[in-house]
Amino acid sequence: MNRLAFCLLAAALLLASCKGKSDDSSAPLAALQSPNAAENYGDQFWNDQLHRKTELWSKALNFCQQPDHKFLINCQPVLAAAAPRVPFSATMPSNGLGGGLFPVPSPNAQATH
After folding, report:
1. By the 8 A CB rule, do 46 and 25 touch?
2. Positive or negative CA dihedral for 7, 9, 10, 14?
3. Each residue's pLDDT tens digit, 71-88
4. Considering only CA atoms, which of 33, 66, 35, 32 is closest in space to residue 49?
5. Which stretches of 19-82 are DSSP H helices?
6. What is the pLDDT of residue 94?
7. What does residue 109 show for φ and ψ, rounded to 5 degrees?
8. Any idea where the domains of the chain sit in the sequence?
């Protein structure tokens, strides 16, 4: 009997602690509309949402891609995360001139000896 009472009390406390909490997605979505920069919902937050493919990410991207919202300050990190990534190359592409720091002699140049 004591176990049952304890379990019921624990369940009641868990339910009471959840009551009144807002949806986790409401604050970040509301921040998108704010004229003030939201420091807690910046690049790192939205990149994480993108990589986890959350419903919050879908809603934020949909909101920020609307023409009237594209230039809102808090939409900038969302749009930056959504931008296509161009891979960085550590090597320079060839310019077709033979490479190096020295000019390649022209085949038409006359050798002087």
Report:
1. no
2. positive
3. 999 999 999 999 987 777
4. 32
5. 26-33, 43-52, 55-64, 76-82
6. 66
7. -70, 140
8. 25-82
